[in-house]
Amino acid sequence: MLNRSENRGLWLLLGLLAALCLSLFLIPAFIIRPFRYQSEGALRLAIAVKRIAPALTVAATVGVLAVGWRLWRGSSRVLRAGIVIALVLSAASAVMVRQNYFEWMFHPITAAGFVSAGDARLSDKEMVMAVRIGQEMRAYPIVQMAYHHILNDTVAGVPIAVTY
Amino acid sequence: MRGRELHFYLAGINNQNFLMRDRETGSWWQQVTGRAIAGELAGSTLELMPNDELTFGLWKSETPHGQGLVLAPVAGHGDKDYDKKWEEEVAKYPVPLTFPGQGLKDRDVILGVEIGGQARAFPLAKVRGANPVEDKIAGVPVALVTGPDGESVRIFRSQLNGLDIELYRDAQSDGKSDGQSKGQSPEWRLLDAQGNTWNFAGCATSGPAAGQCLEKINFLKDYWFDWKNYNPRTTVYSH
Predict the structure, then answer these.
(1) CATH number of B120's domain
(2) Is A104 domain-assigned?
(3) Is there a domain that residue A139 lies in?
């Protein structure tokens, strides 16, 4: 049996670990909101957090699991629900920091297909991004690039990233 | 980058300019500058490839038959995603930054040119209005030329063998192209005082310089607020 103050310390630890996990996901998500201003400092913080988040959220979730395990037996139903919530939030954060939700909004091009100029179903007025390297020419319709944003391509042996 | 091939993916947004990461090192790159801002490759800059923004019609007319390839719609994506009105919709989005005081609205489309450390923004409306727009940036004479389709723009260094040249539209070809609203008019050409005629690729088609081409200058078509954010000391063309 745990004594009272030890118990309180463990509950505090449980809460802190869960809060840590959640903030590792939420801080960068909050800073990098689409229509908001990002200062240089805030952006640096967001990127720094994103870089440590995958490892740290797993470690913290394991911590929540271990602490929750110890607290489980002596806890009432309500407190056990609290343990489960802490665990779910931590695990969900650990999953979310591994997701690239920007690619949920704008699907990446995994396999680009090309057609000849004659076969393209594109009106003459549509704008294209045109690249010519050596004798090879490519046209990337802007309506498509404005949606996918990035295409990794190779033209005349040169690897290029087309961005819009 | 340093002999290593990188593959990029979308990873975030910075003041409405996206951030990308490369699968190889996980470094973070700013789209507009091509510069890595965090990670193993921080500080490096990708080489900008010469590129054009043209109407498809003009691109076809400049592409020898059967040589060019066009990116096809990606399976599973159609008109719903490839929204032809996206430009109008983006124009309504709020801006994260505002730069009043230089006579431009935040979402005015500009053509940004940087030569010798000097940046200048040319409002697209002005470039399309006059033809061609001539200016000097850091002592380099440039001509901003709107093509025969009335949409596509290219910028050339208006210098031939070290001497400045002045390009102007052939009034005759103007008159003839009026009747043709689409596609390339075969008569479209630029003239200079030396007796050369120039096509939209920037190459002399007749005259003493026949066969020579002007140096093409890369530029960025951008919203004013975004250009100003990355080029705080930019001037604005206003003639």
Answers:
(1) 2.102.10.10
(2) no
(3) yes
Question: Which chain A residues are closer than 8 Å to B65 by Cβ?
Answer: 117
- How far apart CA B136 and CA B142 sit, in angstroms, is 6
A117 to B31: CB separation less than 8 angstroms, yes or no = no
Of B50, B96, B151, Cβ closest to residue A35:
B96
CA distance B193 to chain A (A): 30
Are A18 and A92 found together in one domain? yes
Residue B8, min C-alpha distance to chain A (Å): 7
Domain that holds residue A139: 117-163
Most A-contacting residue of B16, B47, B56 (CB-CB within 10 A), to test interface: B56
- CB-based contact A150 B20, cutoff 8 Å: yes
Look at residue B92 and tell me if it is in a domain: no
Give residue-wise pLDDT tens across range B147-181: 888 889 999 999 988 889 999 887 665 544 444 44
Residue environment code for B208-231, b if the CB has 16+ CB neighbours within 10 A, otherwise e: ebeeeebeebebbebbbbbbbbbb
Whether ipTM tops 0.95, in short, is no
Distance (Å, rounded) from C-alpha A153 to C-alpha A149? Answer: 13
